[in-house]
Every structure is written in structure tokens, then in C-alpha cells.
Specification:
The chain is α+β, with helices and mostly antiparallel strands. It is built from two helices and six strands; from the N terminus they run ββββαββα.
Length: about 120
């Protein structure tokens, strides 16, 4: 853990920045959940947040009413900033990814705000 600067984490995943990255990559955030790792810019994180929001809004009505596996069934398709890649997720996983991405964005924006004020 000495090689990373944690940004946000929940029970589903973690977001962090590598400490020893090249200067051109220092603005990217590594997001890890399930067995997936994404290296994203802040604008890609915002786009991913929108994709997650759309998946949750559209997916809630598509859940089977009396299905006993609806919390774990990966029947929702989650678009990503890499347009060629779509994840199959459960409704609960979509909620957890939303928390991870939105929490990461909040922390980045909060850090940026305090940095502009000269407060560390």
C-alpha cells in the first residue's frame, strides 16, 4: 500500500492513484472492483458515473418481480468510458459501483477545491 495514494473505497472496491506514475499519467485514477481494473481520467469518471446512473434507472424496471436471484443476477449491462467494453452487473453491483465512482469524484473535487484555497 506504500505505492498508492488511496482516494476512496467501499466494500466493493477501491480508487487510488499510483505514487510513482509518470507525470502524464498522474491525473489518472485506478479503480478496482470485482476482478476489474480501470485507469480513468476525471472526465472519464464523470462519464462512467452517467453510464451507471442510466443503468440503474433503466435496470430497476427490468428486474424480475418474484425472482429469488435478482440481487445477484448479472442481467444489467453497464457501459464504460471504453465504448468497446460493457460489464454485466447485478442491480446491487451497479449500486456499489455508483457509490465507488461518485465517492471518488466527490473526494477528487473536494481535494481540488481545498487545493485552490491553499489548504492541504
Amino acid at each position: 500500500m506504500n505505492d498508492i495514494h488511496p482516494i476512496y473505497q467501499n466494500d466493493f472496491g477501491i480508487a487510488f492513484q499510483w505514487k510513482k506514475e509518470k507525470p502524464t499519467q498522474s491525473n489518472k485514477v485506478q479503480v478496482i472492483f470485482r476482478d476489474i481494473g480501470l485507469l480513468l481520467t476525471q472526465s472519464e469518471l464523470r462519464y462512467f458515473s452517467t453510464c451507471i446512473k442510466d443503468t440503474i434507472e433503466n435496470g430497476k424496471g427490468n428486474l424480475c418481480g418474484d425472482c429469488k436471484t435478482k440481487e445477484t443476477c448479472r442481467s444489467l449491462l453497464l457501459n464504460t468510458p471504453a465504448h468497446q467494453v460493457t460489464f454485466a452487473v447485478s442491480y446491487q453491483e451497479a449500486i456499489e459501483v455508483r457509490d465507488l465512482i461518485n465517492g471518488t469524484l466527490f473526494k477528487l473535487e473536494l481535494d481540488s477545491f481545498f487545493g485552490e484555497l491553499g489548504i492541504d
